[in-house]
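Subject: complex prediction, re-run

Hi both,

The earlier run crashed halfway through, so I resubmitted it with identical inputs.
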Amino acid sequence: MVFSSLIFLYLFLPVCLLCYGLSPSITAKNVVLIIFSLVFYAWGEPVYILLLLGSVLVNYLFGLAIEHNKDKPKQSGAWLGVSLVFNIGLLGVFKYSAFIVENLNLIPHVDLPVPDLRLPIGISFYTFQILSYLIDLQWGKVACQKNPLYFLLYISMFPQLVAGPIVRYSIVEQEIRNRSVTLTEFSQGMTRFILGLAKKVILANHLSVIVETFLEADVSQLTIVGAWYALIVYALQVYFDFSGYSDMAIGMGLMFGFHFDENFCHPFLCKDISEFWQRWHISLGTFFRDYLLYVPIFGKRRKYGGLFLVWFCTGLWHGASWNFIIWGLYFGFFVFLEQCIGKKQMKKIPLVIRHLYSKLVVIIGFGIFYFEDMGRLLQCLRSMIGLNGNAVFDQVTRLSMLNNLWLLVAALVCCFPLYDWLQKLRNRSTSMSYSIGILQNVCNVALLLVSSVLLVDATNNPFLYFRF
Amino acid sequence: MLTSSMLGNDSNEIDVALPEEQAEAQKLRETAAVQRKKRRRRISKVEPEKERIPYHTEPAPPPSPADPKPNTDSPSALAAEAYQWIRQRSAEMLEQTDTAVQPKPEEFVNPVEMITEPEPIAIPTAVERHDPLERVQAAEQAQQQRKRQEEQRKLHMIEAAEQYRAETAAAKPIVKRQLRRAERVWQKTAKAVQAEQQQPKIDRRLAIVNSVCCLALVFGIAAAALMLERPTVSEIENRNLAAMPEFSVSNYLAGKYTAGISEWYDDTVPHRETFKHWTAKLRQMMGWHKTGATIHGDVPIVQETTTTAVTTIDPALSVTTTAATGTTTTTTTVPEDDGGELSNSILIHNKRGIMLYGGNETIGEGYAMSVNQFKAALGEQVQVYSMVVPTPCSFYTPEKFQYLVTSEEKAIGYIASRLDGVKHVDAYGALEQHADEPIFMRTDHHWSALGAFYAAETFSEVARVPFARMSSYTKVEKEGYVGTLYGYSGDITLKENPETFFYYVPSAQYTTTYYNRSMGGKHQRSLLLDLTNIKPASWYLVYMGSDDLVCHVQTEVKNSRKLAIFKDSYGNALVPWLTSSFEEIYVIDVRYFEPNAITFLQERGVTDVLFAMNSFSASGANARKIDTIRTQ
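This time it finished cleanly. Structure:
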């Protein structure tokens, strides 16, 4: 089930909220959440739900084992090692086995059967959540969760199950056991959810139509403006899709009393690539930073070896395909470059140039992200700089821009922190506070209605994370 | 106070006032003045910035939900700090201004008094000095020196006082400005503090309103979605909506069952068509449409085909006419179709939907070969004709979009050149001459009865059969037609500009018999349907009501000519025009026919075979169907 569908919005969510609200105690609430989360997951993965449950059970036991050997660092370390092998192995089997075998088959005289395993939805997200728990447990940052239901709730909680953010155990450790929802927070959660839904349904879905029109066609035929336009629109589409999903997750978390961390922070306002990744998919970036980059195995070589390993993994995490790996290393290269130049020197470069540079790198990065076929990527890049001998501009591009003018303007404007600005204005005076609150309320209702109407005939409602 | 200490410094210099020392004193005074100025500048430069601190930090965002930590920078704390600071500053400045604006007399004198008395000049006493004359001279000297010093002191006092007055006068406006600014900041802070104090209350109220509105909406829509009747057919899209899936373990394990429920729930929304209409309106609002043109779907590529499946309603199973009451009940089941008559790139221009014809000019090769083989299989006795009908893109595509379209004229010409033993019917030429007449429907992907008339006329000439004049037909018109292109493109322009649907009823007598795909299920029904109870989007079904049935028309013509039309839905419109030309007509859709076509034609003694398809069909999947029906 995806959030941006009518059956989720108008069947699953209301029933879930009703049951949750009517539950008298926190235990009952937790049970309701677990049941609905499992139904949610089983809806899309009737078979792989067993994998999820099995993984939760095994890792719960790993947790206990690490806890049991708390005083013997060697043994607990060994348990952690076993659990890491288990989890990463699981991810490897289901996500990367076909990719690895296909690449091995490229070696002469190797002809292995390619395993035909469908990727379980959300496996990357929940595996990483489990890893964060186990590693934090070993490092003594969190206490061991001895109640298997709590642990199951942490892993399977449906708001963040299939498309992130990657919620650390430490964030929800207390709230799993005890939490309360205030009316204000519930309302904020609702607002957040609707804004996320609108981002996904109104902006991302319609931007995806443009992207398909241009990038699904023969990219070597694209005009120069058309190619740039298509990639920029694609970057916007992915941003609104992904951040919309995160917003919905955070919003629903609030509605149930959980406080997840932010996952996106207006990434297109970045001034350099390092900053872009501090603003884009924050939960993944910090995961790799904390659990891979800062572990002592690299020592002083962190800056080089560790950095590229992190970016290799970041790319690979997004999908088992070479283009994702290249995509990750591509960003790694620019982060490395920026580190070589140094922060102080970077600041000396005029702001305009830094903005242009970062946007350029990001946009081409999305090109790499889009095309799994390197040939098509090169064709597209050639079209972008006019090497295919195509026209600069044509009627189709012009028409597409005009026919989607307000959509594009809205998308660009929404890259700025409008919501935060409004919240700042609120504190100016009482009347301001009221008027902005009412405005927000009206917007919520309007956006929910518009999104619902657009979902009725959603010919374009892609789920982008099936590869993650 | 700043001035007194400075004057004090100066006065120390005066004590030993000698000419060169005076100059030095002057220098010192100057540096003091510079220092004073600097300090003033600092006041006006630095301090306003300090004052602005509350501007930046005071409207701090409300403690974010994701951040449960207590916010040390809360507006109240900042405001209190700001308040303290402003009060202090204001008090200081008020004091300053008071003294600056009205230097009171005693204060004016004050600096003078504060000048320390000079050390008395040591006059040698009589005991020390033995010479009385020297003593007198010394006393006189001392007296003169004292006088001089006194004068100089007075002079300096006046000078200092004037300087002081000038300085304070200059400082007046700056201080005033700072005061005003402080006042403003204070007012804002006060407002913010008030707002902040009331914030929880306001938030609570707004939260109630917001939660109630949103929840009411969600639960209301959820209830409505459960209780209202769900549609099963989409008229405007010309298809059956998703049905509730059957439960089976294998279906469930494959994820098909749950996915099916989702699809059913999302697809069969109550009042779907209304919402679709709103969607079209919303989509329209997302852009600028003053250019009069819109493209839907893929950008056509003039190299390969871009044909997709089209679905056709099958009202034969569905539309049962009860003769007694004359009412039509529609229970539609739509065959899941595979045939391609429709491109997925649609250009809307001048309120007309135009499917853009892609592919290269030799794309009809496969079609021509299939028809040739069909002819070869039938032998010399049977005459085979090929009529490939162009679509609106040949006649109505504006100049600037021409580059998106492959020339249908050339593609059809290529097909004609590849035909072997098959006669080419030049529908393109026939239609081109009448392009300014309504030969195509604006909102539908089909042609009109008029277009079919011109093509049929050309065919009758090629086939050398009689052809009835148009005057022998009765024209029937129906207002408010919005065809399939609205459903496919979702473009509101088409919906908002309906057209008149028309067809012609022949006066000639004939009987029509229908068979199903496998030539069973024989039944009789009229050739033209009654459109009274059929929704506008499906009015093209007036011809025989469906595509997948085989229709056998027996006319009163006696010329021993039996025609079989192998067609897509374009061919349907030809049939009424040929009722005075052939003895019998079999109308067969290439997409649905199940028996072997060659055997069938030979059994029925068919003398003429006409392939009538539009150019999309002929270059798409339907061309391959010709081979299928020949060999199956």
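The first helix of chain A runs from residue 6 to 22.

- K.
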